[in-house]
Design a protein that fits this description.
Length: 425
Amino acid sequence: MKITIHRGIDQIGGCITEIATAEARIIIDLGQNLPRGDEEVKDNLASREAIESITSGVDAILYTHIHGDHFGLFNLVPEGIPQYVGKVSKDVSICKLERLGHIKGREKQTAGELERVHKMIPIKASESIQIKNIKITPYFVSHSAYDAFMFLIEADGFRLLHTGDFRSHGYLGKGLIPTIKKYIVGTGPVDILITEGTMVSRLVEDVKHESELSWELTEIFKEKKNVFIWSSSTDLERLATIYSAYQEIKRGPFVYDDYQAEIFKIFSESAGTHSEIFKFGKAYTYSDKNRILNDLMKSKGFCMLVRPTEKFSNYVDKILPELDPAETILIYSMWKEYINPKSEHAKSDYLNFLAKFPEYRQIHTSGHASPQCLAEVCNLVNPRLGIIPIHSEKSADFKNLTIRDELKEKIITNTVVFGSLEVFI
Ligand SMILES: [Zn+2]
Ligand SMILES: [Zn+2]
């Protein structure tokens, strides 16, 4: 067996991992490099030629989830190579792309992307996929995108665990350790662990449980009448936190736009059938022409989900002058560096949007595993041959985690050969 980390060592995002046997070849994630602040994305693989070359002879591509840094290059894959993605992820992608299709000048590109996503084969948790002699079994993980998976990969007598992006401090995170115990290490030893390590270089970040954010939000809803919330439109767990916190207060209407309404519907009909917290109830779709809704918001107060787009800028410009600034707040619920003017990740459109509001507060927790969680997973999986840290600014820093000394010796950041198993980096 040969494992090739095409990209992902010493960088967050842009992940591409290949697993090959004499018979079969698969790729896990085909991610695009993350943009840095306002800069254009720099990605030497974001071309048809580069992806054609990487995917030449590949039997299948499987995506852990649909964040761009794992999924972003899917549209460059040559026709004929099957691509696998979670069923809900597929629906969410289609919903997103249908919106983008309205953007002038992007119609043709979006149509092509939509066609590719429509053809993707849906992955279902715990249902194995057989690609020639490689068996892949997906298991649900908690992450800031819903319908994210880790993969157990079995071939040539070896067992690998590829975690994708994950965490234990979300609602779905309580299943992480029991799943690994029962289905991964409970069914045999693991040879290689390929794991994300985003937080290894962000050791100082506060990692709260998702439910703690709900309490913090409830306090704000008690304090302020008019609350705008800016979070990821596809982060099921965060949306559930916000929606459920507002139900505690139920002041005025819960307001979103028609795109967010569609995403809520997809989540309610999927995750909502497994857990009440993911079943979203009544909410209002905003329109600046809907006088009744605008009057209701003004008189009773509201919670409104917003994003830094032109459409929301126009909405906010109309709504804000009607409100008392002392009773109005924006909650920013995403990574702090995007709005830190001193950071290389700062985005000027984000900062401009933020500046519209009389006051803002940050309520957020990471979508990635805490250092303690990473250590617990490494110690529990206890791979026989090695740990390959990907999705981390400095992969070698993995040895700073509280993992057993013998595991520290097994951290792989360079090409290595273990008899019939080769790791190329
Ligand atoms: Zn990622
Ligand atoms: Zn992600």
